[in-house]
Structures are given as C-alpha cells and as structure tokens.
Amino acid sequence: MSTPHTKRICQIIKLKPECADEYKEVHKNVWPGVLNALRRYHIVDYSINHYPPLNLLIANFKYTGSDFEKDMKAVGDDEETQRWWRLTDGMQESFNDGASGSGKEIPWWTDVEEIFRFEGGSSA
To answer: Which among 98, 95, 124 has a CA at the least distance from the CA of 112?
Structure first.
C-alpha cells in the first residue's frame, strides 16, 4: 500500500529501434551517481519497460518527497545525471513538439494519465 504522500508517475517516449540493444545494455549498469540522485530526491520504485512493436519505453516511478518540482529540478541539475541524459537521449525520440532533451523547458518524456489503480489490501 502506498503512503499518503506518494505521487505515482508514468511516462512514455519512443526508443529508436536501431538503439534498442544499446539502450538495454547501458541500463544493466546505471551509473551509481544517477541512482544516488534519484534516491536523494525522493524517487523510488523506478522501472522502465520496453514494448518493441511500438518502439515504446514506459517509465514508472514513485515520488515520496514534498516538493516535486523542486526535486525534479535538482535531479536535472545533477552533473552525472546530465551526462547520463546526454548518453541516453540520443537513443530516444520525444512525443512532445519542440522537446530537445531531458531537463529542458519542454519535457522530453511525456506524462501519461493514470485511469485505474488497485492497491489490494484486505478483502471484505
């Protein structure tokens, strides 16, 4: 069960088909500094899934902090995260018109609306 202040995020982006193997390979060993930035700024339970028929990446994560915008800016200001994005952004294509990369004014990944959630719990 999620804590009351947890914000769940789902985002999508296109993966360039010719980059699929490389993208998967680099994500086998995400740089420790990138993971530390996510931890430091309250990102937990982060996963990225790949749906090859549509060249789609689907990211899901939970935010457990109290100032989402401030913490996301801090992640984007992290130097190692910026280097990681320079590596991975070239393997992706944004759905957002005018987007030029992660951490810029126009979001690189597209937020997806949650329409259903079941968290389980005790049965009636």
So the answer is: 95
The DSSP call for residue 102 is T
Q: Report pLDDT for 2.
A: 46
Query: 79-94 pLDDT, tens per residue?
Result: 999 999 999 999 999 9
* SS3 (DSSP) at 11: strand
Residue with tokens 């990138």: 34
Give how far Cα 117 sits from Cα of 63, 74, 113, Å: 16, 29, 11
Question: Among 88, 95, 12, which Cα is nearest to 50's?
Answer: 12
Question: Structure tokens of 3?
Answer: 């804590």
Kindly list the distances between the CA atom of residue 22 and the CA atoms of 16, 27, 75, in Å, as whole numbers in the listed order. Answer: 10, 9, 23
CA distance 118 to 21: 33
CA distance 77 to 105: 13
25-55 pLDDT, tens digit per residue, is 999 999 999 999 999 999 999 999 999 999 9
Q: Are 60 and 8 in contact (CB under 8 A)?
A: yes
